[in-house]
């Protein structure tokens, strides 16, 4: 059985920095949001595989993190899941 879905969310995004000087803050913070969707394919009553595609949107960090300030962009994930419960009878 093929099950399409839409997905959206957001919240704080924190980038922790390693090897900073004593006067530099250890983290950079901003807000982020994502929207997208995907497909779940039920292999059996209890197991599924899926594909999800999101677009992440967020303001730039105040200072570069790993040489970049902008982390907007697409995210593609392949999923494997275990479905709890007995499902519909």
Q: Which tags fit this structure?
A:
89 residues; mainly beta; four-stranded antiparallel sheet; 4 strands; 58% strand
Protein model, in words:
The protein has 89 residues and is mainly β. The chain has one domain (2-82). The protein is 0% helix and 58% strand. It is built from no helices and four strands. It has strands spanning 2-16, 27-42, 47-57, 73-82. Strands 1-2-3-4 form a four-stranded antiparallel sheet, with no helix packed on it. The model has no long low-confidence stretch (mean pLDDT 86).
Give a short summary of the structure.
With 89 residues, this protein is an all-beta fold.
Indicate the topology.
Blueprint: E1 2-16, E2 27-42, E3 47-57, E4 73-82
Antiparallel strand pairs: 1-2, 2-3, 3-4
For the termini, the CA-CA separation is: 15 Å
Strand content: over 45%
Structure class: mainly beta
The coarse overall form would be elongated
Helix percent reads under 10%
Main β-sheet: number of strands, strand sense, barrel status? 4 strands, antiparallel
Spatial strand arrangement across the major sheet: 1-2-3-4
Mean pLDDT: 86
The number of distinct structural domains comes to: 1
Number of helices: 0
Runs with pLDDT <50, length 5+? none
């Amino acid at each position: 059985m093929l099950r399409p879905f839409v997905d959206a969310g957001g919240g704080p995004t924190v980038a922790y920095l390693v090897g900073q000087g004593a006067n530099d803050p250890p983290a950079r913070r901003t807000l982020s949001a994502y929207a997208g969707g995907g497909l779940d394919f039920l292999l059996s009553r209890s197991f599924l595989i899926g594909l999800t595609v999101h677009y992440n949107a967020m303001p730039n960090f105040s200072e570069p993190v790993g040489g970049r300030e902008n982390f907007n962009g697409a995210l593609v994930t392949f999923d494997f899941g275990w479905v709890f419960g007995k499902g519909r009878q």
